[in-house]
């Protein structure tokens, strides 16, 4: 099938490469000439494991092309995906400027029956809005089209795997012809297809992300209680998750969720609810817990270290999760800002996200992509992202290089008994502190 994907961001590129890999002919189009030039030069503007290889192989096979001529790209395909960004506006609503712009271009270029698919995460009702914008820009031409919602569920860092082995494809459509076409497009993925109307498909995306965010805030709240009653949240999650009605995924306590989806989509869901006169208090609490969690973590650092003022703190990991350079809403941002405002000198390590981090956190931090160099001479070491390099770090060497053997782990990477044996002062999330008295003596 011939597919054009408008928007060469995360979602557009990954889907473009995966559709091509499954044998479809794909044009990834973007008005940003620089990005298209980069892609045509074989450079991938984002860090995502496996993406560069997949793009390269499918370009070689002639199934994947890049173009900045969006109108021609629309005319060349039967299926047009809208995969542009929907950033958070200051009011918390999704900003639809880019989606509207693409709908206008599609309206102006339509040259025969097309199915226009919303892949971007858009508020309920956007399907109808896109349809009306396209219609307004047909300029009296006879061109038929249908609008479909086909939300995205991939995770950064594992996007290719998630897309190639998708657990479900949700297709919201009113027209049988459009539903059939998008069904066929997904046939090679051999996945469960959920057929529904456009509004339900749009809501499934928000409900999924809000539910997952709720699980994380729930376990973070529980971890804070665990700390006060002497319980261990890792054992608790295990015990909780064995109930198949609950499930064991997304129950890892930590420093709060970040990224491009959960923070934005939970806020957008609150806006969607407000707009229809409903107060979604549960999700409001999910957001509040998530905003408090990084600050709670800094308080923990402060207590263990005995005030961070004037101390040199090593921070391991900046990206919001491993295998990405994405810094959007990363918990490292509020944590580092708070550490600095409390007078700490921050030395930060990340294997890939430093350039992105500099843009958000600025130059008040000493950055390095060398882990051991980062911890050298620091008063304490703080773990913010569970990069494999951090999980497998040489603990003996880290201990040698630190001024005091203090490790404060925001991701519960290490085993308590092991840390006890190695004589680290070790604090984590929702688990008892190890040797914490030693730091206060030292
Ligand atoms: C998420 C959804 O998982 C995906 O389906 C959707 O399409 C986009 O948003 P992503 O943001 O890439 O994907 O990452 P994800 O792996 O879901 O992690 C999000 C955040 O939650 C990260 O900051 C992660 O560290 C945190 N998290 C996740 C936890 O703190 N605990 C967990 O148990 C799981």
TrEMBL record:
Q: Which GO terms describe its biological process?
A: polysaccharide biosynthetic process; UDP-glucuronate biosynthetic process
Q: Name one Pfam family in it.
A: UDPG_MGDP_dh_N
Q: What reaction does this catalyse?
A: UDP-alpha-D-glucose + 2 NAD(+) + H2O = UDP-alpha-D-glucuronate + 2 NADH + 3 H(+)
What SMART domains would the database entry show?
UDPG_MGDP_dh_C (SM00984)
Documented EC number(s): 1.1.1.22
Residue intervals of the UDP-glucose/GDP-mannose dehydrogenase C-terminal domain: 314-416
InterPro entries in the cross-refs: 6-PGluconate_DH-like_C_sf, NAD(P)-bd_dom_sf, UDP-Glc/GDP-Man, UDP-Glc/GDP-Man_DH_C, UDP-Glc/GDP-Man_DH_C_sf, UDP-Glc/GDP-Man_DH_dimer, UDP-Glc/GDP-Man_DH_N, UDPglc_DH_bac
Question: Has the keyword NAD been applied to this entry?
Answer: yes
Q: Where does NAD(+) bind?
A: 30, 35, 86, 121, 156, 264, 328
Descriptive protein name = UDP-glucose 6-dehydrogenase
Organism the protein comes from = Paenibacillus algorifonticola
Q: What is the lineage of its organism?
A: Bacteria, Bacillati, Bacillota, Bacilli, Bacillales
């Amino acid at each position: 099938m011939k597919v054009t994907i408008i928007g060469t961001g995360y979602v557009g590129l990954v889907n473009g490469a995966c559709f091509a890999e499954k044998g479809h002919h794909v044009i990834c189009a973007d008005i940003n000439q620089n990005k298209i030039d980069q892609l045509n030069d074989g450079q991938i503007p984002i860090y995502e494991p496996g993406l560069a290889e997949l793009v390269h192989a499918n370009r070689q096979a002639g199934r994947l092309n890049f173009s900045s001529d969006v109108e021609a790209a629309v005319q060349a395909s039967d299926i047009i995906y809208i995969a542009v960004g929907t950033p958070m506006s200051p009011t918390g609503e999704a900003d639809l400027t880019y989606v509207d712009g693409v709908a206008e271009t599609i309206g102006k270029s339509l040259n025969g029956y097309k199915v226009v698919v919303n892949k971007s995460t858009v508020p309920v009702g956007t399907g109808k809005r896109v349809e009306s914008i396209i219609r307004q820009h047909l300029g009296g031409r006879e061109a038929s089209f249908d609008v479909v919602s086909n939300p995205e569920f991939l995770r950064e860092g594992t996007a290719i795997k998630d897309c190639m082995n998708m657990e479900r494809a949700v297709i919201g459509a009113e027209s049988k012809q459009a539903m059939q076409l998008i069904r066929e497009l997904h046939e090679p993925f051999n996945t469960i297809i959920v057929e529904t109307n456009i509004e339900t498909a749009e809501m499934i995306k928000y409900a999924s992300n809000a539910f997952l965010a709720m699980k994380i805030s729930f376990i973070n709240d529980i971890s804070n209680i665990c700390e006060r009653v002497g319980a261990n949240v890792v054992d608790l999650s295990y015990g909780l998750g064995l109930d198949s009605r609950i499930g064991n995924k997304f129950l890892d306590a930590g420093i709060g969720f970040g990224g491009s989806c959960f923070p934005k989509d939970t806020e957008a869901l609150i806006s969607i609810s407000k707009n229809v006169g409903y107060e979604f208090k549960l999700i409001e609490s999910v957001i509040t817990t998530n905003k408090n969690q990084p600050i709670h973590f800094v308080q923990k650092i402060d207590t263990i270290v005995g005030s961070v003022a004037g101390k040199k703190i090593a921070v391991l990991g900046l990206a919001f999760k491993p295998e990405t350079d994405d810094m959007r809403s990363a918990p490292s941002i509020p944590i580092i800002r708070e550490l600095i405002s409390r007078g700490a000198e921050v030395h930060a390590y990340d294997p890939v996200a430093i350039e992105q981090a500099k843009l958000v956190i600025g130059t008040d931090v000493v950055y390095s992509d060398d882990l051991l160099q980062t911890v050298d001479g620091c008063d304490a070491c703080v773990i913010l992202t569970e990069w494999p390099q951090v999980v497998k770090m040489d603990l003996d060497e880290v201990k040698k290089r630190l001024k005091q053997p203090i490790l404060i782990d925001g991701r519960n990477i290490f085993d308590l008994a092991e840390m006890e044996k190695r004589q680290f002062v070790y604090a984590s999330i929702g688990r008892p502190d190890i040797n914490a008295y030693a730091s206060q003596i030292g």
